[in-house]
């Protein structure tokens, strides 16, 4: 029996996900998934499977683009360390409290939601900025970091897809333009109105930010969170406005530098720029500003700052390993033809009103299994658009259903890079973030299926 493109190709991802959720040992689960994927791919050659595992892991590790991702991940950890241990973050929190921007749990949550919406240029930058800025506020006010991870994860990706003036928009527009559509840009713009999951996820996160509503595992996470006071040595230090401005400048530079670098690396075109290079440069600039600010405004010694940066990077290292293994597993699922098998399940003989919810569900399963919304878009859009055109139906809702499913599956998957980075930015255990976020994501997905079904019944 051929494994490529068969139901067996699903096993590595699904077993890794199930094991990670059940045992909380994410690294072992992902490593097991990589080994199983290689075992299936090289079956029955055991030696070939062992060698293939080493090659797939090492190839992913030393890939030029991935090396930049590892660097920016560790640099983010170093930035956290410098801001927190260098002492400047305490003054930044006090500045926000003095201006009454985040002096209550509700204001802190709304601040995070608004920040996630405003920074729509790139999802990872949005997640990092919102998480980095908000985390000390949540700790001070006794709001759980799991809720922070949920809010940043549920605003950043949805807003990037709904305001597609970024690499997401360029990527999807390119996929749509490759199909036989008269006006790709107008069709893409129309599809945004039908992107029900992104809209619902954003609105649900807004409601949670405003009300603090918790259910399921999130209720337990909130119960564990208690307000934290500043360390005694920081309580004794008077408010330093220069240190607070330094934090703000550091975070602002990270936001501004991304489009600037996209423009430079793209030869004058933001959509053609290198995302990983841009993000890495932005984070390194923010780290440099944060370090210099702590040194100049608080007279923090170079040795303390260096140690803070190293310790911050060290704390982030397990998440960098998770990201590495998730990418290796994603590469193997593509070689096994996992996505091809999932898309082959679509049966054109089904009632027309079922097509939109079915495309949404298939996209969700694909993204959940491979941990990539971009990969899902590349697979599902060339399937959904010709299907709509062959049936004489408007392509915009089909485009939206494919993209919505990709966002939901990526939002829910423990092996998704955005889910991992949200855990990193919020400073919470990765599986705790997955478990607490999943009920909210499932609620939005359930409502999305209902809306697509209703639209299909009324329109097709």
From TrEMBL:
Question: Domain Na+/H+ antiporter NhaC-like C-terminal, which positions?
Answer: 181-457
Q: What is this protein called?
A: Sodium:proton antiporter
Q: Which residue spans traverse the membrane?
A: 69-90, 110-127, 188-210, 243-264, 270-292, 304-330, 350-371, 383-408, 438-458
Gene Ontology terms: cellular component: plasma membrane
Q: Which domain of life is it from?
A: Bacteria
> Can the keyword Nucleotide-binding be found in this entry's annotation?
no
State the UniProt keywords alphabetically: Cell membrane, Membrane, Transmembrane, Transmembrane helix
Principal localization?
Answer: membrane
Q: Where in the cell is it found?
A: Cell membrane
- Its membrane topology, per UniProt? Multi-pass membrane protein
User: What species is this protein from?
Assistant: Aliidiomarina minuta
Entry's Pfam families? Na_H_antiporter
Q: Does the keyword Transmembrane apply?
A: yes
């Amino acid at each position: 029996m051929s494994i490529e493109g068969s139901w067996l190709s699903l096993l590595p991802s699904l077993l890794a996900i199930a094991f990670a959720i059940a045992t909380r040992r994410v690294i072992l689960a992902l490593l097991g998934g990589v080994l199983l994927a290689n075992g299936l791919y090289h079956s029955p050659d055991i030696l070939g499977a062992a060698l293939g595992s080493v090659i797939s892991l090492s190839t992913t590790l030393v890939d030029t683009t991935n090396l930049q991702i590892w660097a920016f991940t560790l640099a983010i950890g170093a930035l956290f360390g410098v801001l927190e241990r260098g002492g400047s973050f305490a003054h930044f929190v006090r500045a926000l409290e003095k201006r009454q921007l985040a002096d209550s749990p509700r204001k802190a949550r709304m601040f995070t939601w608004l920040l996630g919406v405003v920074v729509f240029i790139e999802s990872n930058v949005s997640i990092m900025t919102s998480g980095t800025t908000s985390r000390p506020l949540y700790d001070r006010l006794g709001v759980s970091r799991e809720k922070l991870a949920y809010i940043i994860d549920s605003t950043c990706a949805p807003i990037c897809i709904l305001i597609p003036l970024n690499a997401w928009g360029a990527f999807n527009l390119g996929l749509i333009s490759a199909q036989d559509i008269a006006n790709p840009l107008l069709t893409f713009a129309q599809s945004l109105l039908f992107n029900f999951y992104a809209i619902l996820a954003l609105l649900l996160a807004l409601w949670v930010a405003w009300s603090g509503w918790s259910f399921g595992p999130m209720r337990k996470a909130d119960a564990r969170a208690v307000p934290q006071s500043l360390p005694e040595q920081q309580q004794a230090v008077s408010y330093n406005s220069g240190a607070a401005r330094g934090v703000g400048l550091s975070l602002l530079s990270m936001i501004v530098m991304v489009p600037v670098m996209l423009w430079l690396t793209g030869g004058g075109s933001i959509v053609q720029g290198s995302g990983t290079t841009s993000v890495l440069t932005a984070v390194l600039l923010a780290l440099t500003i944060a370090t210099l600010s702590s040194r100049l405004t608080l007279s923090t010694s170079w040795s303390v700052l260096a140690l803070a940066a190293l310790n911050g990077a060290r704390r982030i290292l397990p998440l960098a390993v998770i990201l590495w293994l998730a990418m290796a597993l994603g590469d193997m699922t593509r070689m096994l033809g996992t996505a091809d098998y999932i898309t082959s399940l679509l049966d054109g003989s089904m009632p027309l009103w079922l097509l939109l919810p079915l495309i949404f569900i298939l996209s969700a399963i694909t993204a959940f299994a491979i941990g990539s919304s971009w990969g899902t878009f590349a697979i599902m859009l060339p399937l959904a658009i010709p299907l709509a055109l062959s049936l004489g139906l408007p392509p915009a809702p089909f485009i939206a259903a494919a993209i919505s499913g990709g966002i939901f599956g990526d939002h829910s998957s423990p092996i998704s890079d955005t889910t991992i980075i949200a855990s990193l930015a919020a400073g919470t255990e990765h599986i705790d973030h997955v478990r607490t976020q999943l009920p909210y994501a499932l609620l939005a997905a359930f409502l999305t299926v209902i809306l697509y079904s209703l639209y299909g019944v009324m329109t097709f």
